[in-house]
Design brief:
Blueprint lengths: L2 H6 L5 E2 L5 E7 L10 H14 L3 E4 L12 H11 L1 H4 L4 E4 L3 H4 L5 H9 L18 E6 L6 E8 L33 H18 L5 E5 L7 H5 L7 E4 L12 H8 L2 E6 L5 E7 L2 E5 L15 E8 L7 E6 L4
């Protein structure tokens, strides 16, 4: 298949329902191991029953890859933590976070293990940097017209694990407060998004609105934290986000292409806010796992509600375990 055919392909179709609504539940930073906190799995199951999403997005750090070491351990783990979706026949997809990359297995092989699951509709790339780069078209409830696109990008792992020539002592440099040791979205990933978006526009005869999910958010999320009134910020921003070492240019590319209406990330377990900057809704998801650091008051998932007749305006809110 060529790039367009790959982007149009889905194992199971995504469609707005008869009321013109499509509901997404994003769960980030589950970050458990085979010795997991049972509250995590129980809370995920309850949250799915409460929200009844059309699609679940696992927003990275799905497992703790510093503990899981083998393919057999990963498979055993995924059998446990995909069961809430698989047993209830709920479609789901994923992007990798830094801890998913920590498992010392080939990333393409890891991606294919995920894609073996019956209700997983994840896709991956093999010819550019990163792995979980994809687009999932959402079609009309009445026709095959593509009304919305859900994009995923791989935010990769630590900067010195990339093909950028950086020494370990870069951590000793004094940089902007929100920068950390993390890698960035690479330029070929930006090119892939841009070219794929242009291809889809030509195929559809118009530019199609969408949202993007990425584990480690771009630098511009700090504008929400630093300007809460101007950006209409809601939620918690207790933690310095520790995002990529460099500004990848992702947000600037999204602004210029002008089809992404919302970008959502995770990674910072004590942050779960939303706000609007330059016409793009910027959202951080909460921590979904109990074994990882963070506040129990903030554990849960982020809901997105899309409307077929108004895809530019996306409703979002946090759904916390404590309220179940």
């Amino acid at each position: 298949m060529n790039n367009l055919e790959k982007n149009l392909y889905l194992k199971h179709d995504l469609r707005f329902n008869k009321n013109g609504i499509f509901k997404i539940l994003m769960l980030s930073d589950i970050q458990e191991t085979l010795r997991y906190d049972r509250r995590t799995l129980e809370s995920m199951e309850k949250l799915l029953k409460k929200e009844k999403p059309d699609l679940v997005i696992l927003g990275g750090d799905i497992c703790d890859g510093t503990v899981l070491k083998t393919e057999e351990e990963l498979r055993e783990y995924l059998n446990i933590f995909t069961s809430p979706m698989e047993q209830n026949m709920i479609l789901w997809c994923h992007v990798f976070g830094n801890h998913d990359h920590d498992i010392e297995l080939d990333d393409i092989k890891k991606a294919k293990i995920y894609e073996e699951y019956s209700y997983c509709i994840s896709k991956h790339t093999e010819d550019i940097y990163g792995t979980t780069n994809f687009v999932l078209p959402v079609r009309s409830c009445k026709t095959d017209e593509i009304k919305f696109n859900i994009w995923g990008l791989d935010s990769n792992n630590k900067i010195w694990d990339s093909n950028i020539d950086i020494k370990y002592d870069v951590r000793e440099y004094k940089g902007p407060a929100n920068t950390g040791e993390w890698d960035i979205v690479h330029f070929d990933q930006l090119m892939w998004y841009w070219n794929s978006s242009v291809e889809l526009e030509k195929y559809c005869g118009k530019k199609v609105s969408g949202m993007m999910v990425i584990h480690i958010p771009p630098h511009e999320f700090q504008f929400i934290v630093d300007n809460p009134e101007m950006t209409g910020a809601e939620g918690s921003a207790k933690e310095i986000m520790n995002i990529g070492m460099f500004n990848s240019g992702l947000f600037a590319a999204l602004l210029q292409r002008n089809d992404i209406k919302c970008i959502a990330g995770g990674h910072s377990h004590n942050d779960c806010f939303s706000g609007d900057f330059c016409g793009i809704k910027m959202c951080l998801d909460a921590c979904a796992g109990y074994s990882a650091y963070g506040s129990d008051e903030l554990r849960g998932g982020r809901v997105f509600i899309l409307k077929e007749d108004d895809t530019d305006n996306i409703e979002t809110y946090m759904s916390f375990y404590k309220d179940l």
